[in-house]
Amino acid sequence: MLFLTHLAAAALLARPARLSPVGLVAGAALPDLVDKPLGAVGVFDIYHTVGHSLLLLAIVGPLALFGRQGVAILVGWLSHLLLDAIHVVLNGRPEHLTFLGWPLLQPNPLDVPPGEFIFYYLWSPSFFLELGIWCVIGYLLVANRHTVRRILHERT
């Protein structure tokens, strides 16, 4: 899943989950904010490690003890992992779910350079899932345009 889709999907959870959109979005950003820089600077040779491991639940889980904002961060983080898991399964690579058990299980990353990834990703089943998520977001924005306008007007 693309980073912005993780954030948008987490924000969509706010109303039905009755949780803070800020906490949900922050939690959804967490895996990539941890792992992408670690991979980019060469600490790890893959991009799904610490932040994408369910073993991090031992650290992130206790956030729920800090009230609803902590719960929102935890749910946002879990939503990111769930969407990434759905992504690899939809695209026919269930064996790549090993990222969820890092470092006990060694991830089997897709061996596609970042520039070529976009061509791999376009028209994949996961691409259409993301497109659907963005269609829902677009619909909700149009359906609630008066509320959106009021919120934007109040902030300026």
Explain what the structure shows:
64% of the residues lie in helices and 0% in strands. By secondary structure, it is mainly α. The chain is globular, with a radius of gyration of 17 Å. The chain contains seven helices and no strands. The mean pLDDT is 88. It has a domain of 108 residues.
Properties at a glance:
single chain, 156 residues, mainly alpha, 7 helices, globular
Summed up:
This protein has seven helices and no strands. It is an all-alpha fold. GO terms for molecular function: hydrolase activity.
Low-pLDDT parts are none
Report the total helices.
7
Distance between the termini: 32 Å
Q: What helical percentage do the residues reach?
A: 55-70%
Strand content: under 5%
Note the main sheet: none
Radius of gyration: 17 Å
**Number of E-type strands:** 0
Structural class: mainly alpha
Q: Would you list the SSEs in sequence order as H and E?
A: HHHHHHH
Mass-distribution shape = globular
- Average of pLDDT: 88
Write the layout of secondary structure elements.
Elements lengths: L2 H15 L3 H20 L16 H4 L7 H23 L23 H8 L3 H19 L1 H11 L1
